[in-house]
C-alpha cells in the first residue's frame, strides 16, 4: 500500500509521534499542578485531603482527553480495522466458495507431495471429497496414484499442466495449477459429450470426403471471402489444376480471362441477394487446356446466421459445348447451301418466265395467251417466296 494513501481514520498520533505525545502529557500535568497550586494558595489554609482531591479532579479532567486520544482511540481503531478485515476475508471466502461451487467441474485444493485434499467444491464433495483424503482415492477410486497424473511435473516446474485422458470409458480433461509453495489446485472436467460430438463431426467429415472423392462432379469449398480450402480429385481433373494451385485465390487465376469478370460479378450478385450461384464458364490452365463447366454454389451458414463459406460443384460440359458448336456449324453450312440452291432456282425460274413470255407473244388465240400469262405469274410468285424454309432437310 502507498504511504500517501493511509486514511485519516487509521491515523494514530501515538504511533506517529511518541515524543510529541509525551511532551503534551507533561505540559498537561504541569498545567494541572499550576492550577491546583494557585487554587490552594487562595484557599489557604486548607486540609491536605482537600488539596489531594482537588489535585486529582483537575488531573483527571485535563488528562482524560489525552488518554482517549492517545490510548483508547488507537485501540478502538485497531479493533475496528481488524473487524473490517475479518468481514472482508469472510466475503472473499464466500465469493470464492460460490465461484468454485458453480464451476462445471471437480475442483480440489491439494497438498504437494501427498496429494491430500485441503478444500473442495460442491461437485467434488458429491463424489466423496473430504479433507485428508487423497485425490486418487476420491476421483479414481484407487489406492495408488494415476500413471497419467501431471502433478509431479507441476511440482518440478511450477508451470500449469493440462491433459486429456480416457479412463474407464469416460473422457476427462485435467488441469493442474500452482496455488502456494505447499498447495496446488486440480480441476477435473468431464468432456465425454464433447469428445463424442467431435468424433461424430469427424465421422461426418470423413463420410463427406469419401463421397466427394468418388463423386463424378467436382466439389469445392471456400470461406466467406471466397478463399478455397478444399477441392476433390474430380475438380482437379476438370479444372486442370492441382489442389495447391487451387487453394486460396488460385482457382480465380484458373478461370478463362474472357469469363473471369463475368463470373465474379455473377457470384457477387448471387451472394448479395442470398441466391444460389449458377453459371457456365471456362477454366484455362497453364498447359493451354480449356474446359467448359457449369458451376453451382450455395452458402454454408453458422447457427447464428452468419455466412460460414460456400460449397459448390462444377460439371464438365465440354462434350455438350462441342456438340453445340458442331450443330451450329452444320446449320450454318446448310443455310449457305440452301441459300445457294434458292439463288440458282430463282435464276432458273427467271429463265422459264422469259421463255413463257416470248412464247405468249407469238400466240394469237387469247385463251391460250392468258393461260401462258397465268403460268408466268405463278412461276414468278414461286421465285419470290423463300420456298426452302419448307424443305424437310
SSE blueprint:
Layout: H1 13-16, H2 18-43, H3 48-101, E1 106-111, E2 117-120, H4 122-126, H5 135-139, H6 151-157, E3 161-167, E4 170-178, E5 183-190, H7 192-214, E6 218-223, E7 228-231, H8 233-239, H9 243-246, H10 250-253, H11 257-272, E8 277-284, E9 290-301, E10 307-316, H12 318-362, H13 366-384
Antiparallel strand pairs: 1-2, 1-5, 3-4, 4-5, 6-7, 6-10, 8-9, 9-10
Helix pairs in contact: 2-3, 12-13
What does this structure look like?
56% of the residues lie in helices and 19% in strands. By secondary structure, it is of the alpha+beta class. It folds into four domains: 3-98, no CATH class; 103-190, PAS domain (Beta-Lactamase), CATH 3.30.450; 216-316, PAS domain (Beta-Lactamase, 2-Layer Sandwich); 334-390. The protein has a five-stranded antiparallel beta sheet with strand order 2-1-5-4-3, sandwiched between helices. It has a five-stranded antiparallel beta sheet with strand order 7-6-10-9-8, with helices on both faces. A hairpin with a 5-residue loop joins strand 1 (106-111) and strand 2. The model is unreliable at 1-17 and 388-393 (pLDDT under 50).
Amino acid at each position: 500500500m502507498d504511504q500517501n494513501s493511509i486514511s485519516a481514520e487509521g491515523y494514530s498520533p501515538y504511533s506517529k509521534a511518541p515524543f510529541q505525545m509525551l511532551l503534551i502529557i507533561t505540559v498537561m500535568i504541569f498545567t494541572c499542578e499550576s492550577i491546583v497550586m494557585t487554587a490552594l494558595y487562595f484557599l489557604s489554609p486548607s486540609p491536605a485531603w482537600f488539596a489531594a482531591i482537588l489535585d486529582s479532579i483537575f488531573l483527571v479532567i485535563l488528562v482524560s482527553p489525552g488518554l482517549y486520544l492517545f490510548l483508547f482511540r488507537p485501540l478502538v481503531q485497531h479493533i475496528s480495522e481488524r473487524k473490517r478485515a475479518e468481514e472482508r476475508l469472510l466475503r472473499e471466502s464466500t465469493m470464492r466458495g460460490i465461484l468454485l461451487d458453480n464451476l462445471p467441474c471437480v475442483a480440489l485444493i491439494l497438498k504437494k507431495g501427498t496429494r491430500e485434499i485441503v478444500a473442495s467444491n460442491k461437485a467434488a464433495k458429491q463424489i466423496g471429497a473430504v479433507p485428508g483424503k487423497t485425490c486418487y482415492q476420491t476421483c479414481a477410486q484407487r489406492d495408488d496414484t494415476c500413471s497419467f497424473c501431471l502433478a509431479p511435473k507441476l511440482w518440478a516446474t511450477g508451470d500449469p499442466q493440462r491433459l486429456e485422458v480416457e479412463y474407464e470409458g469416460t473422457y476427462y480433461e485435467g488441469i493442474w495449477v500452482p496455488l502456494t509453495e505447499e498447495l496446488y489446485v486440480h480441476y477435473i472436467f468431464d468432456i465425454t459429450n464433447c469428445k463424442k460430438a467431435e468424433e461424430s463431426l469427424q465421422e461426418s467429415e470423413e463420410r463427406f470426403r469419401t463421397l466427394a472423392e468418388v463423386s463424378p462432379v467436382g466439389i469445392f469449398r471456400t470461406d466467406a471471402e471466397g478463399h478455397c480450402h478444399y477441392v476433390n480429385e474430380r475438380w482437379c481433373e476438370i479444372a486442370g489444376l492441382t489442389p495447391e494451385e487451387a487453394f486460396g485465390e488460385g482457382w480465380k487465376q484458373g478461370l478463362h480471362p474472357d469469363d473471369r469478370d463475368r463470373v465474379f460479378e455473377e457470384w457477387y450478385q448471387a451472394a448479395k441477394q442470398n441466391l444460389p450461384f449458377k453459371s457456365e464458364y471456362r477454366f484455362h490452365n497453364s498447359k493451354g487446356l480449356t474446359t467448359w463447366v457449369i458451376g453451382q454454389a450455395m452458402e454454408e451458414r453458422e447457427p447464428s446466421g452468419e455466412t460460414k463459406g460456400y460449397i459448390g460443384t462444377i460439371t464438365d460440359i465440354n462434350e455438350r459445348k462441342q456438340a453445340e458448336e458442331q450443330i451450329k456449324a452444320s446449320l450454318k453450312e446448310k443455310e449457305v447451301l440452301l441459300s445457294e440452291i434458292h439463288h440458282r432456282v430463282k435464276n432458273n425460274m427467271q429463265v422459264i418466265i422469259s421463255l413463257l413470255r416470248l412464247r405468249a407473244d407469238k400466240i394469237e388465240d387469247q385463251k391460250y395467251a392468258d393461260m401462258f400469262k397465268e403460268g408466268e405469274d405463278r412461276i414468278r410468285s414461286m421465285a419470290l417466296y423463300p420456298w426452302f424454309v419448307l424443305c424437310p432437310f
